[in-house]
Write a structure and sequence with these properties.
Elements (H helix, E strand, L loop, with lengths): L4 E7 L3 H13 L2 E7 L3 H10 L4 E2 L3 H5 L4 E4 L6 H8 L8 E4 L5 H7 L8 E2 L2 E3 L20 E4 L7 H13 L3 E4 L2 H28 L5 H6 L5 H7 L4 H10 L1 H24 L2 H20 L16
Parallel strand pairs: 1-2, 1-4, 2-3, 4-5, 5-6, 8-9
Antiparallel strand pairs: 7-8
The structure holds NADP nicotinamide-adenine-dinucleotide phosphate.
NADP nicotinamide-adenine-dinucleotide phosphate binds next to helix 1, helix 4 and strand 7.
């Protein structure tokens, strides 16, 4: 594939940045890739595993001369990093991010941008419950969506170049405004994570069920909650603090539906429960038909002999 950016800088070297690096190398779309992470331990690991062509000692050093800078730090750290790198961004460069929330990140980053730098926020809808520089892999974005959030007056060439870049990493791209993005993600990702955290917390609190029973019998649905609830605490704290409004709106609706289902159970309204579960099953089918998950039983987990 042809080169899309001559110099790319990744700020933050965790799951997303490391997956981007390996996917860039697979596609051959970037010349030199520089990287920076806050702690020397992470920078050492990056050097050890060959993550980035050059690991720098400051974010500003990594960004000097870059055509594309991607902020891959937790949402709550975006502001501080943007302020630090703003003076060295080269005119004509594109600044992007991969934050799971868009409205708050745009509000935090945009005021620091020098004239002549194109700010094109983005969000790849791909991840795992693992974090850190060793957790990335080149296939993470394959056939996943990456939402691009152009700003008013964004340079179309810069937007289309970033879209082509994400497509070269294996993703499908779509454009969306920040407010709509934050609502869609509150439904599809943020509220489900909070529910998983709650469910696992409840199981932990239930003294009637011993720890060993929770673990032993977890295949019956609970195991999938535990996977989600193992996601990075810093990242998810920042998501909820920065997508407050949309998450609270969805959780409000969730609570109403939960009460309705609770009532149906109490009153023995089987028709209500059956109709509800039929509707949700159709949603699952839609996700599979869209190629966004596997149809294999138990998510394709290997069966024990
Ligand atoms: P991660 O694996 O925990 O890595 C975060 C990286 O950011 C680490 O290298 C960390 O450095 C660095 N960092 C934290 N604060 C920093 C600061 N103030 N200055 C410089 N570096 C800093 O996180 P991730 O999963 O890659 O997530 C990164 C971003 O992608 C987040 O905004 C998240 O919302 C978004 N995202 C995540 C997922 C997902 O499922 N994980 C999916 C889509 C988007 P140290 O190691 O040195 O602390």
């Amino acid at each position: 594939m042809a080169q899309i950016y001559e110099r790319v800088a990744l700020i933050g070297l965790g799951l997303i940045a490391s997956s981007m690096y390996w996917a860039m190398k697979r596609a051959g779309v970037a010349g030199e890739v520089t990287g920076y992470a806050r702690t020397s331990g992470t920078r050492d690991v990056a050097r050890e595993i060959g993550l980035c062509d050059r690991v720098c000692e400051s974010a500003a050093e990594a960004c000097e001369g870059a055509d594309l800078v991607v902020l891959c730090v937790p949402v709550g750290a975006m502001k501080e990093v943007a302020a630090e790198i703003a003076p060295v961004l080269k005119p004509g460069a594109t600044l992007s991010d991969v934050g799971s929330v868009k409205g708050a990140v745009i509000a935090a980053v945009a005021p620091h941008l020098p004239k002549g730098v194109h700010f094109v926020p983005a969000h790849p809808l791909a991840g795992t419950e693992h974090s850190g520089p060793r957790s990335g892999f080149a296939e993470l974005f394959d056939n996943r969506w990456c939402l691009i959030v152009p700003q008013e007056g964004s340079d179309r060439t810069a937007v289309e170049r970033l879209e082509a870049f994400w497509q070269s990493l294996g993703a499908n791209t779509d454009e969306m405004d920040a407010e709509h993005h934050d609502l869609v993600l509150a439904v599809t990702s943020h509220a489900p994570h909070l529910i998983a955290y709650t469910m696992v917390g409840v199981a932990d609190d239930l003294r009637r069920v011993t720890d060993s029973e929770v673990i032993k019998y977890s295949a019956a649905g609970f195991r999938d909650f535990t996977r989600i609830a193992a996601s990075d605490p810093t990242m998810w704290r920042d998501v909820f603090l920065n997508n407050r409004q949309a998450t609270l709106e969805i959780l409000g609706r969730f609570t109403e539906e939960l009460f309705a289902l609770q009532r149906a159970i109490r009153t023995g309204d089987g028709d209500h429960l059956h109709a509800y579960f039929t509707r949700t099953r159709a949603i699952r089918r839609g996700i599979i038909e869209a190629g966004q998950d596997t149809d294999a039983p138990d998510f394709g987990r290997a069966r024990r002999p």
